[in-house]
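Sample A.
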Amino acid sequence: MRVTIVGGGVLGTAHAFEAVRRGHEVVQLERETEARGATVRNFGLVWISGRANAELAMTLRSRELWERLGAKIPGIGFRAAGSLTLLRTPGEVAVAEEVVARADAETRGFAMLDPDQVRTLNPVLRGKYLAGLHCSLDAAVESRQAMPAIRDYMAATGRYTFHAGTEVRGVQASTVLDDRGQRHGSDLVLICAGAAHGGLVREIAGDLPVRRVRLQMMQTEPLEEPLTTAIADGDSFRYYPGFAGEALDALRRSEPQDAVAEEHHMQLLCVQRLHGGLTIGDTHEYREPFAFDVTEGPYAYLVDVVEQFLGRALPPIRQRWAGVYSQSVDPDQLVCRTTPEDGVWVVTGPGGRGMTLGPAIAEQSADLIGL
């Protein structure tokens, strides 16, 4: 088949890879010269921790696919580093103990570690915490280099073409019209436009059941020591549905979240890039219109939390940024997938799970469509 993919982010690229892998000829169009949205403004985490039971199997499948991709394409930078959620209060420890006692704890790779065990696993964590929840299955990729690496791999097959700086103006009978005057005849069109819910997407599919979410993040200069796992804090328990239970209910009642963290719907996630810098975040803003600038309070809060865990000052902050991603408003749907006309599909709305679930979503799409 001839498949045209609209969008150069992780969903579009994952769908392109899946189509190429299955033997089809793929043309991918991206309106920017390189993906600039949530695909590159994230942690690069393949995150098993805290996923809802309904999506756990798909998350584990996606991790398997990322590992396979990493073996084929070293430029992705896949590493099975695992994660540590560092616990600062008795209530957070109780939540971790509850999830470790559950039947699916081994499936999720969970184990409770005392401070000495945490430091043995990740020696740079010389600061203050009561315990750590280890997830051995969490992993990371290099989000800013993964898409170009995957495209190079696909191009080598001779069945893939990427058009950068090319915006789609319309789709007529499975033929894509771009702003360079080219017509891309296709048997199948997949539109993976990320957080762009208007324009072409609205014209083709109408108003979809998705919303946009804004976040703030930052990157440090290189830390001269290896951070051998990703790290999170106990606020992630409040954010991820897989931690729901009696202990979390008690935590919410007895231990109010820090005022800054509560105001900005925050959790700490931190991962070390291959160049040594730390990617740190994040916040969640759900009500539009979003501000065009970033707010300093969350950055100061996150720096303080990370420095407490490290027991040392962070390197200087090199970059700060905001990003916006698309999230399905139905909590039972991993992604919004619709076919407004024959031969045309729109796929969007994975929320903050796009990097984690991209390969599995694409595999599921391909099976559903019959590629």
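Sample B.
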Amino acid sequence: MSKCLENKFSMKKTAIKIVLTSLLGLMGTTQAFAVDKAAFVYIGPTSDHGWTYSHDQGRIKAEKALAGKYKTSYIENVPETADAERVIRNLAQQGNKVIFATSFGYMNAMEKVSKQFPNTVFMHATGYKQGKNLGVYDVRTYEGAYMLGVVAGQKTKSNVLGVVASFPIPEVVRNINAYTLGAQSVNPKVKTKVIWVNSWFNPGKERDAALALISQKADVLMQNTDSPAVVQAAQQKGVFAFGWDSDMSKFGPKAHLAASVLHWEKIYTPTMTQVANKTWKPSATWYGVKQSAVNIENFGPSVPANVKASALKVRDDIHSGKLHPFSGPIYKQDGSLVIAKGKTLDDATLSKMNYYVKGVEGSLPK
């Protein structure tokens, strides 16, 4: 082969290499851009060790389970005001395939923005409004509250339980009632006192409410708020409390009896998969013990083996369908019958609960 022909052949090989390298580079770039994005809007900080923390753990686990398919992000401390609408719209404009908003007060903002971005999937936690690209989801926290009540009813000496509550919406009222019913199932003498703090995350108010309940002889506390302040107060005063939404034992090792732990990845992973596969359809998802989305975990050293066993049996009975926390007979605070023996409140009724059951003291804020 002449030197001239050899040079021409070498140049052609180099050109082919350049073209192939460019094509492979483009393929790699396309693959990178093919990774879907999902965004999460949080009411509190991810460090609250409660509601927001549990959602963020679900986000992390879902992204790990879908490794290479999704890139997730979040914005924390988003108030339930016009700011929420702005944040949600910005996330849609950034090209997120699915946006999860994790507090009830985001509902109207989600509905409005979802109509403006029909190609984006919107998922709202604890709400009820749906649309063509707007779904709702929740975890049956009342099942966790009922299981905690079973433990509380056996641990209390004063027969007075306390609840530090956030806002008087059906979700929270339902949890207070379930806690009370669970305790009464093992201890009919139990009464429950409630203090409302009108906040999801305010450690100072939560602590003050816990101390006030303790001063009223409540010796086992539950909360429907997000910080570990209640557990810390219980530890200080020598009474008992529960982790809510996540394990809070490190904040009060002696006080912590158990935790109602939420596993949001049980919803996030399949939802993100459906969005990626273009099989997602709007629906109302409400997962509980049966789907392993809520569980009683992290029993403390103050829980005897028989009490732990009774709580776990209740969990197993809920899982199998043998037990429902809101099966009759159930009576309202005023003694009127809610539902007769042998019958169970359906989801539609549970979602509108606006009364205390018998055994809860005080009046429900209006």
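B remarks: The CA atoms of residues 165 and 196 lie 5 Å apart. The longest helix spans residues 3-33.
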